[in-house]
Request: fold
Amino acid sequence: MNIQLSRRNFLFASAALGGGLYLGLSPERADAAEPGQLNAWVVIPATGRIRIMASNPEVGQGIRTSLPMVIAEELDADWAAVEIVPTLADARIYGRQVAGGSQAMPTQYEPMRRVGAAARGMILQAAASAWNVPVAELNTDKGHVVHGTKRAPYGQFAAAAAALPAPDMAGVAVKDPKSFRLIGSFQPGVNNRAIVAGKQDYGIDAVVPGMIHAAFHKSGVQGAKVKSANVAAIKAMGGVKDAFIVAGTDEYEGLASGVAILADTTWHAERARAALKVEWSDSPAAFQSTAAWAKMAADAKGKPPAMPIHASGDVSAAMARATKRVAADYAYPFIPHVPMEPINCTARVDGDKVEIWAPTQNPEPGRAAVAKLLGVPPENVTIHMMRVGGGFGRRLQNDYMVEAVAIAKQAGRPVKLTWTREDDITQDYLRPGGWHYLEAGLDAQGRCIAWDNHFISFGQGGKFARAAGIGPTDFPAGIVEDFRLGATVLPLIHTTGFLRAPANNAFGFVTQGFIDELAHAAGADPVQFRRDFLGAPRIIGDPKSRGPYNTGRMRAVLDKAAAMAGWGRKLPRRTGLGVAFHFSHLGYFANVIEASVATDGTVKVHKVWVAGDIGRQIVNPAGAMNQVQGSILDALGACMGHEITFADGAIEQRNFGDVPMLRNEQIPPIEVAFLTPDYPVTGLGEPAYPAVAPALANAIFAATGVRLRKLPLDLAQLKA
Amino acid sequence: MKLNINGKPVEVTADPDMPLLWALRDVLGLTGTKFGCGAGFCGACTVQLDGEPVRGCQTPVSAVGTAKITTIEGLSASAWGRKLQDAWVALDVPQCGYCQAGQLLAAEALLRTTPKPTDADIDAAMSGNICRCATYTRIRAAIKQAAAA
Reply:
């Protein structure tokens, strides 16, 4: 037989520009398939459990449960009997493998349905041949092919099915959602049983033969390089196997300079580190301080923005026409991610081959950075995507992957690099702080007719740092016709990055706090004012910014949250309801918070009502509820007490004592409702976050008449 | 040094001042006990000594003496532990799951001494354990479900 003829087409993913995911066919990859492998995600052995690949990084968002559920639904497999298998990082086979931007569901939900449906179709075709009946007479049920009273497990037809070419995707039929049995049902995480038994390996639990433990000491002032260190003395300490200076690279956000200490245990590496004496070079970052930036921001007030971002209509004329003008200054700090699992990575460098065990949200940029650093082909870098003990956006960056590889290479043996919590906080890729100098004009009917915002942010060379920018059509551009947005960028030399609902997590506080002020200035009810502000249902914004969004869908969640909370009801003294909405990451969320303020300024959140819209289908209500509750409480904890400050170029906070996390006894009840209008399915890691802080600040205003415009909320202002 | 871990005698070679957390993880390979902050703030490293929850990162291995150590790997030896594990799975408590070993060991100690805990009992017993994903609502519900099981 001609070898060409033995080839078949094999279904795999191809990443497309713009983050989309398409399914493609490849004869080459079919040759690499194992027996019973129908496509890149589905393996059906002759006997035993059907295996479904989980190709996305799992950071706690539940994606290794929810996407396999989507495949299993269309495959008509028995969920209780499938085995979920995490894959390596390999974008050539799996396409997008990122835990970020709440983008997995929007880009992978429909393709994964087709992955499951295509595999089911191949099984049916093979069964039809085996039983000599038309495919149309066959049905499936929980991993079995059914014909009349005849019933046989998929495995019986898997070998024949695996020899068939994958079907043309255009012709693959998916289920009518009304017949879903698995999608939409409450399914606990597939790793739960291992987690509660202490058997689930996270990145930090990786063990490689011959591995030693590394600490890596860097300056808190980024850009400072090691001039000298007492390396010889460190090497003589108990348990220490090696110590050396890592020169680092010169590029911004490249490999940092520092001292690596390698020992038989993490503890010995850290104990030796405490005795480390390092002389650092000067860094241009040393000028930085929170006080200096605050002064720069204050100096920028009243001056024209250095950078126009967006303007429509004529703001000056509209302001002149306004019967009332309202001005307010909002501010928010740098905040850290503090994922529960400290930053770590295990690496082995063997000639021009590299193997990495990493808790990463985004492996491919890490692969590229490692390949570049070592000068090896990217395909020589194998990345095990370990379960991640919390990401929140921190692990979209792969700095620790590069460090672990550099240290392993220099050490000449496998290394597990573990950061301390102090390393995590002082070397974070922070959510950038910012200031917004706002002014708005109201007409005689109390409608907002002008909006002017001077945004003070951070960056390098007049350009926004990562996650520090604002989009030209961000809310409320396009809603207020006479609109102006400009920015001034303060100098920053410290890594910044994406933190849950990046940018939106701050802008939501600013816009929804200021709109509340406008409502009160107009003498209007805050919910009704927002309805009028949103206006008629229509599409606003463009895909290049954080849009487009549908004001009608926003109005619906606003109305729902208000109804759930009993908006307008009478409340005890110093108790208030606050409302806010925000669109981000394709999701629509509105919150109402009930809070009371004691005379000593203590704030108690009594309840949070949440209405969300992420499209027509909640894939897994178990994970979905977790994401919403987690986002709400994440935002609540941050706005109540998270703030990173700088002095002499370095971060001043060190551990959870300086970054207080919410604890069990502080948790309010959270009531969540999903609206499911007929729109595409979107993601849930982020959009429930941004409307929390403003709803709380607005509730505090309703309770006390005190308007808090700065995060973290300064409760000292609330003393009666 | 001789230790008793999850009902078995174990010989460990470690500096006397090495925290139990690191002796378990790096010397004995029991990686279910997690490193979170190294300073006693977060409770991720919670283990039990003679049934009492302690911070593994704050307990020198030499201070353990003859006390019986229970780690997450040994939780299922306890009837309360098994009930808690079942409730944790059924209610889908974990998000990232990293802190849950510590949460479960704290919860098991609570139920063993207070089989029908009030909310105030849960507050007091669980306050030392941070969950960065904030699964607290389900942790509380799962403790109550285990108590009723």
In short: Chain B touches chain A through 61 residues (CB under 8 Å).
